[in-house]
Every structure is written in C-alpha cells, then in structure tokens.
Amino acid sequence: MGQKVHPIGFRLGITAGWKSRWFDERNFQKKLREDVEIRAFIEKKWKAAAIADVYIERSASMIRIIIATSRPGVLIGRGGTGIEDLTRVMKKAFFPGKKIELKVDVQEIKAADENAALVGQQVAEQIEKRMPFRRILKGTIEKVMTSRNVEGAKIEISGRLGGAEMSRREWISRGKIPLHTLRADIDFAQAVARTTYGTIGVKVWIFKGEKFEEREVSENVEAK
After folding, report:
1. Spatial distance between the Cα atoms of 52 and 71, rounded to a whole number of angstroms
2. What is the largest CA-CA distance in the chain?
3. Structural domain range at position 132
4. SS3 string of 3-21?
5. pLDDT tens, position by position, 116-171
6. Helix or strand (DSSP H, E) at 81
7. Which of 23, 58, 157, 203 is least enclosed by beta carbons within 10 angstroms?
8. Pair (48, 76) in one structural domain
9. pLDDT (tens digit, 9 = 90+) per residue, 69-80?
10. Mean pLDDT in residue range 38-42
C-alpha cells in the first residue's frame, strides 16, 4: 500500500495556513488539546450551521475564535443574540472561573461548492438519508466542477456501501489533482456518515489552481 501524505499538512506554510494561530512553548500540549476539544464541541453542537473551519487565535488575556460557515444566520441569530449565547456557552464549558476575554467572530463562505469540508458534509448527509451513493457522487462532483475557480476534484467514500457485507471503496474524479505539486492549491477534508450498517468515510479533494509568489517588479529603467 502507498503511504499517503495529508494534502494540507504537506503544504503548511506554502499554500495553506495554520488553524491554531498561536505558540506557547510551556503549555503547548495543554492548549493544543483544548483547541481540538473546542473545534469538536462547536462542530457537534452547531452542526446545522454548516461549519467548514474553526480558527483559534490566542494572546495573554484573550482568545479569539473565528468560525467559517456557509450559514452565518444560524450562528448570528436575530439581532446578534446567537453570538452572545455561543460565547456564553463556550466560556462556561471551557473557561469557567477564568478571567479570559473570549471573542467569537463569524466568517461567511460564499462559494460553498469550492470548500472541501462543506462538500464532504453534503455527501455524508445524503448518504445518511439512504440515497444511492453513485448518484450522490456523480451529482456532487458535477456541481463542484461548475464553479469557476475549480480545476479538478475527487470524492471518495469507503465502508459498507449500500449495506453490503464487505466494505469497499468507490471514488469519482474530474479534471486534474496534482498532489505532488507544492504550489497547487488543494483543499482536502474528511467527513463521516453514520448509517444503520456502520460508518462510511468521505474524503474530498478540490484543486483550485496553482499559487505563485507575488514578486514586486521594479521598472526603474533609465532613459538613454
């Protein structure tokens, strides 16, 4: 079997950024575990909000949580009361009795079909509704490829597909996905569909072209 490298981890610092934007040499392990628990808590409790990513920034006295979602209205609520409720719940669950300022921001994702996490969630939801998996794969990838910025995509599902006794993999791809090219802007995400036959894993790769360094070209040419 081939040893696969995570497409996002492979490109950290090149085309992809970190989801935890802080560094603490002394309490790194404790805070990193806290970040993982915060993300899991938010994604589970506000599953209907179609959350793609949760970014966490820390300073000495403040923690800023940025939630990227395609349905900001579900989180914000009427008059912004949803953000206040979310902040209160998060502070009670993770920072009880601590004098830490917690700030929650919501970032809207306008092109949901170009985000691998949201596409994976859509596929998982449809599988849980017992729709034919081949129809799901074909319909989803055609929808993704209609986006102007997408040059290639691949969707893979694995598990007891259709209630079969033996688990297997099925995938569909369109366009190109250069996984060995570091400058390739590849969005990757995983999702899980929980069915009566067991869990079915979903993987999504979306290629959005290549990123190049923006170099300033000075045109100081002396006229002769």
Report:
1. 10
2. 80
3. 112-210
4. CCCCHHHHCECCCECCCEE
5. 999 999 999 999 999 999 999 999 999 999 998 999 999 999 999 988 999 999 99
6. helix 81-94
7. 23
8. yes
9. 998 888 887 777
10. 92
Please indicate, yes or no, whether residues 162 and 100 belong to a single structural domain of this protein: no
What pLDDT score does 213 carry? 65
The strand ranges marked E within 42-179 are 51-58, 62-69, 101-108, 152-159, 168-175
The CATH number of the domain holding residue 64 is: 3.30.300.20
Last residue of a domain, one of 79, 108, 137: 108
Token output for 190: 């995983």
Residue 1's pLDDT is 52
Confidence of residue 195 (pLDDT cuts 50, 70, 90): very high
| Alpha carbons 123 and 133: distance in angstroms, whole number | 9
Q: Are residues 103 and 133 in the same domain?
A: no
Q: Rounded mean pLDDT of 175-192?
A: 93
Q: Kindly tell me if the per-residue pLDDT of 221 is higher than 70.
A: no
Does residue 194 sit in helix, strand or coil?
A: strand
Residues 90 and 183 in one domain: no
Positions of E strands within the chain:
20-21, 51-58, 62-69, 101-108, 152-159, 168-175, 184-195, 198-210
Same domain for 13 and 103 = yes
Q: Establish if 224 belongs to a structural domain.
A: no
The pLDDT, as a whole number, for residue 69 is 92
Work out how many domains the chain is built from and give that number. Answer: 2
8 A C-beta contact, residue 151 and residue 175: yes
